[in-house]
Amino acid sequence: MSLRSCEEQNMIIEIVEFDDDRLEAAASLVAARYGTELEQEPLLSRRYQHAAETIPFLHELRNKGPGVAAPGDGRLIGFILGMVSMFKGVYTAYVPDFGHGTDTLKSRNVYRDMYAQLAARWVGSGCFTHNISIMAHHRQAIDAFHSLGFGMINIDALRDFSPGPDLPHKIEVRRAGRRDLEVVMSLETKLKRHLASSPIFIPSLPNPEMQRSVEEELLDSDQPIWIASHEGAPVGFIVTESTGRGPVLA
């Protein structure tokens, strides 16, 4: 695909098309990175430190869009796989945290070169918005994408199930039911307005299916919605979901 010289590091990075023959090596990179993350965040599931557990994710991702790989010294030293879909009304390329990895001390340069190749293809197909999820302690990856102009859009956090601090006075938390549809819809609308405001600027197009989706969530015993009220007036809500397939390996 291309050959680029990184003069500052006296190395040559070759970027090629990602193919199925590289899936196993890519899964090993993800598992190794996850293992490092697990040392920092012991609440993470131990499941994904094994490459065999990430291969199905990568295989599915491979079928959703193009990818690039960086071979070196007879092994895979980096890869990026992403998908393109509609997000907030625009075509958006997204790389989940299991969709990329490196195995080199020069990860920053490898990431920059891989992204340059893949981004050109995304833009060439009319996709100008690019998102990537990065594990919290992967500093070289974070630095690489910051240097390319990326900013932060959200953070995923973990905590155990130990009791939190006592609720503030006059705050009540309860599980929402079907009768709370109007309340949850109102809070959803306020949240979307907040996300569209400065300095966040993440507007959402009207979604005619949102009410039906909320209704289904209110009836789903495995994914409860909780409402917080102050002196009887709803002031907040949280939606819980099962830890199945998602953008974050957890």
Write a concise synopsis of the structure shown:
InterPro entries: Acyl_CoA_acyltransferase. The protein has 250 residues and is of the alpha+beta class. The chain has helices at residues 23-40, 51-62, 107-124, 139-147, 181-196, 210-219, and strands at residues 2-6, 11-17, 67-72, 75-81, 83-87, 90-95, 100-102, 129-132, 171-175, 225-230, 233-239.
Would you write up a description of this structure?
This protein is of the alpha+beta class and 250 residues long. Helix content is 33%, strand content 24%. The protein has helices at 23-40, 51-62, 107-124, 139-147, 181-196, 210-219; strands spanning 2-6, 11-17, 67-72, 75-81, 83-87, 90-95, 100-102, 129-132, 171-175, 225-230, 233-239. A five-stranded antiparallel beta sheet has the order 1-2-3-4-7, sandwiched between helices. Strands 5-6-8 form a three-stranded mixed beta sheet, with no helix packed on it. A three-stranded antiparallel beta sheet has the order 9-10-11, covered by helices on one side. The longest helix is centred in the first third of the chain and has 18 residues, at 23-40.
